[in-house]
Amino acid sequence: MKDVPMSMVEISRRGDVAVAAISRPDRRNALGTEVLDVLVAAFAGFEADAEVHAVVLTAVAPGFCAGADLKEFAGADEESVSRLNLRIAAFCRSIALMAKPVVAGVDGFAMGGGLVVAASCDLVISAPDARWRLPEVSLGWLPGFGLQTLANRIGPVAARRLAWGAETLNGVEAQALALVDLLAPSGTPAREAAIEHAQRLAALPPHAVASAKRFFAPLVAAGCEAMDAEANRAYAEDARHPAAQATMRRFQGR
Questions:
Q1: At 153, which CATH number?
Q2: Does 30 map to a domain?
Q3: Domain interval for residue 87
Q4: Res 23 pLDDT > 80
Q5: Strand (E) or helix (H) holding 100
């Protein structure tokens, strides 16, 4: 596997399972440019490494991911923010196109873009008490990517419900919507449950696992690239609204 910088993402191995853990606890594991750079490089390495048969995406405490780094967004111009949105969107879409299964292990919370990243994985394992929410509309803008991914996973009506973000779901409620596939057993961190499940997938014939991913990829990822571009345009328009501008100003000094 290609070496990648360890900053902000902890990369380890459990036999033939590669584990990438976002490690930016001071920013609630928010997605910024540096985190994304490491994740993209790491996943390219996992895909190229014949000794890796499955991947786990998880995070250190306090939670999985709080979404895009609004401090970085608040300090950037509109074009830079749009580019970062599109890069995160492309990373999310790339997961469906990998030959190897990717399992998300979500403890604590998955918010905003963090929810989308988790939902983009092939299997999502959540702690029963993990919190799931898309807060963007309450902040003044449409989520800038991932809505088609959610619609493909849980259906358009449920995806719209999530996009409004009027409620926070726990893991049990998220499973009822099919946003979460499996719940971690009581007393077991979702991270460990995800690794255990990934090990079971890794034990299967890799060529057949890859065939299953290739077969379903067009269905899982249908329409996502075009709709991510549309969501990003809507985000940019919303971000000019005074309510959104007020939100951004609150994050500039953080």
A1: 3.90.226.10
A2: yes
A3: 9-189+203-252
A4: yes
A5: none
195 inside domain:
no
Number of domains present in the structure of the chain: 1
Asked if residue 214 belongs to a domain, the reply is yes
Residue 128: both structure tokens together: 């029963």
Q: Which two tokens stand for residue 130?
A: 């993990």
Cβ 88 vs Cβ 136: under 8 Å:
no
Q: Contact at 8 Å (CB) between 141 and 239? A: yes
142-187 pLDDT, tens per residue? 999 999 999 999 999 999 999 999 999 999 999 999 999 999 999 9
**Cα–Cα–Cα angle for 228, 229, 233, rounded to 5 degrees:** 115
pTM above threshold 0.85: yes
- Is residue 34 a contact partner of residue 8, using CB atoms and an 8 Å limit? yes
- Annotate 115-179 with DSSP letters as a single string: HHHHHTSSEEEE-TT-EEE--HHHHTS--SS-HHHHHHHH-HHHHHHHHHT-S-EEHHHHHHTTS
Whether residue 74 is contained in a domain is answered as yes
* pLDDT tens digit sequence for 79-119: 888 899 999 999 999 999 999 999 999 999 999 999 999 99
Predicted local distance difference test score (pLDDT) of residue 48: 98
DSSP string, 2-33: -----TTEEEEEETTEEEEEE--GGGTT-B-H
d(CA 128, CA 42): 28
CB 250, CB 244: distance < 8 Å: no
Please enumerate in sequence order all residues whose Cβ is within 8 A of that of 140, keeping only pairs 6 or more positions apart, or say none.
238, 239, 241, 243, 244, 245, 246, 247
